[in-house]
Amino acid sequence: MSPRTHVLPDRNAAVEACAGRIFELLNESLTGREFATLAVSGGHIQDLFEKMAARRFDWKRLQLFWVDERCVPPHDSASNYKLAKDHLISRVEIPESHVHRIVGEVAPQEAAERYAQEIRSFFGLARGEMPAFDVVQCGMGPDGHTASLFPGDPMIDDREGIAAARFAPQQANQWRVTLLPGSLLAAHQRIYFVSGADKAPVLREVLNAGPQASKYPAGIVGRNAEWFVDREAADELESS
Questions:
Q1: Which CATH number fits domain 10-183: 3.40.1110.10, 3.30.1360.70, 3.40.50.1360, 3.40.80.10?
Q2: Half-sphere exposure of 239 (CA within 13 A, CB side)
C-alpha cells in the first residue's frame, strides 16, 4: 500500500483528514500568489463540503471549479453545483465571480465547450496546454469510475482535451460534462476521498499499482494521487 494512502478508522475521521489536507495544500499554494484553484467533485460528500466550510480560510482568494457535472439545471437535486452551493459555497465568503460552474442546463457539447473555454481563459492557455489546478478533489465509484470517466470509455486515453461531454448509460442514461485525464493529471495535487465497503474490491485493484489498475479510470487518474479512505473501503487492502 502506498505511503500516500491514508486509512482512517471511520468515515468521519477520513472526512476530517481529507479536508485538513486540502486546506494545507491550498494554503501552501497561496504563498506569494493572489489565489489558489480547487476543483471539486460530486457524489455523497455533503459532510466533506461542510467540514471544508467550517475551516478558517481566506475564501476570497479561492477560485472554485468542478471536476464534473450532470447535464441538469443548477437547482436540480442531481447537480454537483447545487451540492456544493448548499453545503459549501452558501456558508463561506467566496465571490460569485470566483465560482466557475459547469453550465449544465445547455446542450452537453455546448456545456463542455463553454467550460473548456472558461478554463483556457482563466489560466491563459494556448491550444493544447493543460490547466494546472492547485488541488483536484476526486472520488471513486464502486465500478472504478472517477470524474465522469467510466470503465471502457475511450476518452480515458485522451491527453489533449480539457473537458468533454460524455453519455453515461450506467448512470440513468445521463449526459455529463467532465474534465478529461489530461486536465486531471496536470493538477499539482490530486486528493481522493473514498468511503464504504462497496468500494473495497475495486480499491484493492486500483491501489495495487499492477496492470489491473489501468482497467479503471480511477487507477489511471489516481496514480500518484493522495488517498483518504475509511476502514470499510480499505478492508481488502492489507491482503493485497
A1: 3.40.50.1360
A2: 5
